[in-house]
Amino acid sequence: MPFRKIASFLAAFILAVLPAMAAQSDFPHYWDGREHVAKPDLSTVERIRFVTTVDYPPFNFVDATGRISGFNVDLARALCNELGVTAICQIEARPWDELQPTLESGEAEAIIAGLKPTAALREKFAFTAPYIRLPARFMALKETSFAEPFADTLKQKTIGVIAGSVHQAIFADYFPNSHWVGFPTRELMFRDLQAKKIDAVFGDGSDLSFWIGSPEAKDCCAFVGGPYIAPQFLGEGMMIATTLENQKLVDAFDFALKAIEEKGITSELYLRYFPVDFY
């Protein structure tokens, strides 16, 4: 689907669902309220240019007006506003394979595009604390009962997963005595769920949240059970990357991330782009 169509769908979906969901967010707190994070002096910083992509909605995409939009984009703006450096902040779109070279060459100061902090990347870049994690979730027809204890109930159910996916690996590891069926595509998996050929699906919570609210779902389904963070499979979460020499910016971003979380700004952005809460 073209990016403009994706953006238009997201905008319409958000406007329709947000009023009903605004008070129901379980967005987690990543910062300990007692933890002190000092605000660095950025008076000598002349520019803070973020680079991102436009192919990862709703985190970063081109909206119907042709502007760069998304959760990551609005988060970057909120951080700059919190730090009082809006005048020197810029956000630029680049292809994914150009993000790291752009940062290393000094053409940008930060990557905000879901770059995972692998051991190899930590040797080249500095990373902030995570600002969002994308948990795995179960989704089932609203009429399907999942009694507690949840893990025992799963043993009597058939669960759909995308074959060969990380979520298949998580399910097999966490629920070794439960039965799963692999599907080549999410469309086939969702179709079999609606046809009651399987009892639930297990996958990326953010992706499932959009399907739950989509016209194709016909209000059939809801999340069951809790979120599975599974860092050993899904990583540490989404972070902002800078060069190792720019640790001051990492400290500044961490200060701002903590501040906007405490003010509820991060949660507001989350519900703006993910009206169906996946936590």
TrEMBL record:
Keywords: Signal. Residues 1-22 form the signal peptide. The keyword Ubl conjugation does not apply. Residues 47-277 form the Solute-binding protein family 3/N-terminal domain. Gene3D superfamilies: Periplasmic binding protein-like II. It holds the Pfam family SBP_bac_3. The keyword Signal applies. It comes from the Bacteria. This is Transporter substrate-binding domain-containing protein. It comes from Phyllobacterium pellucidum.
